[in-house]
Specification:
spliceosome; 8 helices; Pre-mRNA-splicing factor SYF2; mRNA_splic_SYF2; mainly alpha; mRNA processing; about 250 residues
């Protein structure tokens, strides 16, 4: 009445079943190794594609940079300064339009936006560029004229090299050198000096024209030279001393 006794399995069938299980056990590690190899291959192919894309991107960026550099080299030397100047002028025009639309004075708005430090720095820079302190004496005026003329001189390097070959060390004088009568100026230099002198004479005649005499003007001078000096002083410092002069005339000066 118990469970039925299974029939005996033949020896041949037992061997067949045992061989199939062994082959399955051997096929398992081979399939795992093949899958791992395929995964590694996909990973390498993915990295290769990424490197290939990066190389193409770098090549494209390098080409763009070369094109931009070639454009910059073909531009004028002061292109960046001109570009900055144009951008600044456009901003100024836009600011003027905004101020005009609001009914405000652009110069006043601009001065309100400038700090005291920037204003002082610009004033110092302006004075260094053209330190015109007004007329002090004739020696200072002559020095300014000399500096203006020397800035206009353009040296002739070819003539300088010829003089170096001709005179050698004698071209550079020392305290023992005798220079009087040893130098003969060239005709071009003489013509240039004559042209400059004629230009000065023409300018002097244009600005030294005789002005009409005003009988109603206040007499605050003692002679003609003092009158000219007072006019120069009034031109340079009149706007600063107007209130003091009025107080002195009214007798209310402190």
């Amino acid at each position: 009445l118990g469970s039925p006794i299974p029939a005996a399995v033949p020896v041949a069938e037992r061997g067949l079943f045992q061989g199939s299980s062994d082959s399955e056990e051997e096929a398992g590690p081979c399939a795992a190794a093949a899958a791992a190899a395929a995964q590694k291959r996909e990973e390498r192919l993915r990295k290769f594609r990424e490197l290939h894309m990066k190389r193409n991107e770098a090549r494209k960026l390098n080409h763009q940079e070369v094109v931009e550099e070639d454009k910059r080299l073909k531009l004028p030397a002061n292109w960046e300064a001109k570009k900055a100047r144009l951008e600044w002028e456009l901003k100024v025009q836009e600011k003027k339009k905004e101020c005009a639309a609001r009914g405000e004075d652009y110069e006043r708005v601009k001065l309100l936006e400038i700090s005291a430090e920037d204003a002082e720095r610009w004033e110092r820079k302006k004075k260094r560029k053209n330190p015109d302190l007004g007329f002090s004496d004739y020696a200072a005026a002559q020095l300014r004229q000399y500096q203006r003329l020397t800035r206009q001189i353009k040296p002739d390097l070819e003539q300088y090299e010829k003089l170096k070959e001709q005179y050698g060390e004698a071209l550079y004088p020392t305290s023992d050198s005798l220079l009087h009568g040893s130098h003969v100026p060239a005709k071009e230099g003489i013509d240039r000096m004559v042209a400059d002198l004629e230009k000065q004479i023409e300018k002097r005649e244009r600005y030294s024209r005789r002005r009409p005499y005003n009988d109603d003007a206040d007499i605050d001078y003692i002679n003609e030279r003092n009158a000219k000096f007072n006019k120069k002083a009034e031109r340079f410092y009149g706007k600063y001393t107007a209130e003091i002069k009025q107080n002195l005339e009214r007798g209310t000066a402190v």
